[in-house]
Specification:
Order of helices and strands: EEEEEEHHEHEHEEEEEEEE
Helix content: 10-25%
CATH architecture of the largest domain: Roll
Structural class: alpha+beta
Number of domains: 2
Number of strands: 16
Oligomer: single chain
CATH topology of the largest domain: C8orf32 fold
């Protein structure tokens, strides 16, 4: 699928401020895509611009600024072609999988105390799936899609998995984090992904940055699941950034110095697609 995306982010400040260093995560990943063009425009112009790759394979841009400014405008435009990942390989081992089986997956199987409610929820779905990993992932994806009151929540970090499970309400980032926690409780490595979705229809009619989960399957690699839409991720999604948690995927990370200064954020996302 061909994507053309324009993502604008505008910060306004009540008085001129001094910026700290900023990190932008707005360059698409190319795991299952070919990046044709990409243009990143920053106003005001930065004094330092570094294009880097982080430890999770994401292309990031580090900026530094000199002087005081009352705004920061970031525009990312790109054209890209996606393709569906190859089909999963041989049959997977039955669930649950042993934790710590692969040192390379340590970041995606953190030593966390899974909430009992999430652990029981995942174990129940795994039992209903006969211990089949692929069947479990599809059942989990559809269960969250059908049983959750899904909505847009512009502000705030993701809720805890237990909270989303208990309330049956959440935004895309909340469902992604719950999906990840359920998978990790059964030994399946999982990561958080931010990006865009081709066919998303939202109540407000606008396009937004989207998020979903990916799991690592032996001999198949990373595979995406979008519980917000009940879809397996194929060529209809564009990944910007992937990390073990939501915090590591924020599209704009940075701060400012200014006593008593208030700030406001406005954004606009325009997405065009062709088969």
């Amino acid at each position: 699928m061909r994507f053309s995306v324009c993502h604008e982010t505008h910060y306004s400040y009540s008085a001129p401020v001094l910026f700290g260093a900023h990190v932008l995560r707005l360059t698409p990943r190319t795991d299952n895509a070919v990046l044709l063009t990409h243009n990143l425009t920053i106003d005001p112009v930065s004094s330092v611009w570094q294009d880097l790759t982080d430890r999770y394979g994401n292309s990031i841009t580090r900026l530094e600024f000199e002087g005081f400014f009352d705004h920061l405008h970031i525009e990312s435009r790109f054209d890209l072609e996606t393709h569906a990942p190859a089909a999963a390989g041989p049959a997977l081992p039955p669930l649950p999988w042993p934790s710590g089986a692969s040192e390379a997956m340590t970041d995606y199987l953190p030593a966390e105390d899974h909430e009992e409610s999430v652990r029981a929820f995942a174990a129940g779905l795994a039992s209903e799936s006969g211990g089949d990993a692929l069947a479990f992932l599809e059942r989990l994806n559809q269960t969250l899609f059908t049983r959750t009151d899904r909505h847009i929540r512009p502000e705030g970090a993701a809720q805890t998995p237990a909270h989303t499970l208990a309330t049956g309400m959440g935004a895309c980032r909340d469902l992604a984090v719950l999906f990840m926690a359920a998978c990790r409780s059964l030994g399946i490595p999982a990561r958080f992904v931010s990006g865009y979705q081709a066919r998303a229809e939202t109540p407000d009619g606008r396009r937004h940055l989207h998020s979903w989960a990916e799991v690592f399957l032996p001999d198949a690699g990373w595979r995406g699941f979008d519980p917000m839409h009940g879809l397996s991720v194929t060529d209809g999604h564009v990944a910007l950034c992937a990390a073990p948690d939501q915090a590591g995927t924020m599209p704009v990370e940075g701060g400012f110095y200014g006593y008593g200064v208030t700030s406001s954020l406005a954004y606009d996302v325009q997405i065009s697609t062709w088969p």
